[in-house]
Amino acid sequence: MMSRKFELNEAARKAKVDKTRRDMEAKELKQSRKKGKGPSPEVCEQYVALDCEMVGTGVSGRHSALAQCCITDWHGNTLYCSYVRPPERVTDFRTFVSGIRATHLKGADAVTLLECQKAVAAITKGRIIVGHALHNDLKALMLSHPKNMIRDTATYRPYKRPNRAGKLAPRSLKHLALEFLGREIQGGEHSPAEDAIAAMDLFKLKWAEWETSLKQGRVGKKAGASKPVRQIA
Q: Which residues contact 63 (CB under 8 A, 6 or more apart)?
């Protein structure tokens, strides 16, 4: 009985500590924006955030194809956002998650995959891309990017947590945003612009230590590289 009571008290204490940390980090982020603290404008220019939405093609929509791509800057301004017409016939719009509908891809604003590739390549050239599980986005875009110029919040060690096997595993962007930013996202249909901004804000929270650890070689490829990952809550 005492052991059970101790466990409950310890869990409550830990939850309180976690909430305090989240509140402090969210407050620091807000204050840094107001006071203009952080990297210089020149350094901020080096970073862009990328997020894409995919639809299903082929039998039962099992294959993913790019349908929307958004790029935002350090401050959350939209640099590029467009619907993309997949070259294959769409068999599953995945609207409940992607937010994509047939009208979006038939509209005059939708571009071809090639047009999107050219625009994204031009914007990201020589810049560091920030995102979450960027492997999926780059695969959909059919583009590559230098591994040392990728900052992936899905593979960054401090943003992981142990799974049931005791190994560190990636967490979803939705849960990271709620825990570290105090922000609710992906409540229904996803917004690639919103997701890109959330990934950038998560990166900004850890910017100094992230870049320092990369320079010192403590994080290495795992922090920079983006690989297919299975996320946990």
A: 56, 57, 88
Tell me the per-residue pLDDT of 146-156, one tens digit each, with 9 for 90 and over: 999 999 999 99
This prediction has a pTM of 0.78
pLDDT digits (tens, 9 = 90+) for 87-118: 999 999 999 889 999 999 999 999 999 999 99
> Could you please report the per-residue DSSP string of 125-149?
TTSEEEESSHHHHHHHHT----GGG
SS3 content of the chain, % helix, strand, coil (to 5): 50, 20, 30
The domain at 25-224 falls in which architecture?
Answer: 2-Layer Sandwich (3.30)
Q: Where are the domains of the chain?
A: 25-224
Residues 222 and 47: their CA atoms lie apart, in Å, by: 19
Q: Which helix (H) or strand (E) holds 151?
A: strand 150-152
